[in-house]
């Protein structure tokens, strides 16, 4: 099972630690992929049976709109689910409202998937059109947070969408 690194994997870690998978006769090996679309590419190559990813990625790849160049994947499907608590906007301390993003740069995982669409909709609701800010594709949550931290240290005007 390929997973993005993060605390949201704690149920998997717990199940492995307590032997829940083994008692059910299921052998699970976790592999973390820090690249944004590594899970998608490596799953297509047959390296993993399961990839933990956002539902938006599944839809994008089934429709042939995924960020990584793997082509349409009609055999991809989603099962199980998660809460929406991961949809929050994290910004540098000087950003106190969406209006402060005008002329700034926002980072996203991929511009063609749901988290970016949610961000664009949020900013549109705050009267910011896509021409009012720049968008950079950085990668997964860990990469976006690291970029936010580096940008803040450099004094760059980048915020981070998580």
Strand content: 5-15%
**Number of E strands:** 6
Dominant shape: globular
Largest sheet: 4 strands, mixed
CATH topology of the largest domain: D-Maltodextrin-Binding Protein, domain 2
- Reading off the top of the CATH hierarchy, the class of the largest domain is best stated as Alpha Beta
* Gyration radius over CA: 17 Å
Could you explain how this protein is built, in words?
The protein has 162 residues and is α/β, with parallel strands linked by helices. The protein has two domains: 2-62, no CATH class; 89-161, Periplasmic binding protein-like II (D-Maltodextrin-Binding Protein, domain 2), CATH 3.40.190.10. It is built from six helices and six strands. It has helices spanning 10-18, 20-23, 38-44, 55-62, 114-125, 141-154; strands at residues 2-3, 31-32, 89-90, 105-108, 134-137, 158-161. Strands 3-6-4-5 form a four-stranded mixed β-sheet, with helices on both faces. Strands 1-2 form a two-stranded parallel ribbon. It is globular, with a radius of gyration of 17 Å. The two termini are 23 Å apart.
Notable traits:
single chain; 162 residues; alpha/beta; D-Maltodextrin-Binding Protein, domain 2; 2 domains; 4-stranded mixed β-sheet; 6 helices; 11% strand
